[in-house]
Amino acid sequence: MFMKTIHFAKSAFTVSILMLLMVTASNAQRMQGPRMTPEERAKVLADSLALDSTQTAQVVTVLKEQQGAMQKVREDNQGDFDAMRDAMTDLRKKTDEKIMAILKDSQKTKYQEMMKNRPIGRMGGPRGGGGN
Q1: 5-23: per-residue pLDDT in tens?
Q2: Vertex 33, ends 132 and 15: CA angle to 5°?
Q3: Is 52 among the domain residues?
Q4: Does some domain include residue 109?
Q5: Domain span including residue 56
Q6: What is the tally of structural domains in the chain?
Q7: How many angstroms separate the Cα of 7 from the Cα of each of 10, 15, 16?
Q8: pLDDT in tens, 82-123
Q9: Cα dihedral 118/124/128/129 (nearest 10)
Q10: Which residue blocks in 33-129 are alpha helix, DSSP H?
Q11: CA atoms within 13 A on the CB side of 119
């Protein structure tokens, strides 16, 4: 009888751990949310900043370039999260600069405010004040 109790306790513990892992993975996916395509991201900017069709097309091009560059960074730095974070931060900064060059003066202030308040990376924390 004692052995059956120990076996049941081990089984219950194993099931509990598996359920915990499944819930954690599910929550992580939900928090990250679906990734937006460059076109979807450009539409958000177009709506927020009143971009014209030429500006929107230029932003799509910049965002596609960024997407390709970020994929390369992920591939080149697998496992080296510090290097990946640094490279991604640099890419975001360069992308912001390219988008700023596309914007009219009246749109730049609003874009800068949007960038200051955007979540970054997978952790989702707000961006600090002075960077972009």
Answers
A1: 776 667 766 766 766 666 6
A2: 130
A3: yes
A4: yes
A5: 36-117
A6: 1
A7: 5, 12, 14
A8: 999 999 999 999 999 999 999 999 999 999 998 888 776 544
A9: 20
A10: 38-49, 53-76, 81-102, 105-117
A11: 8
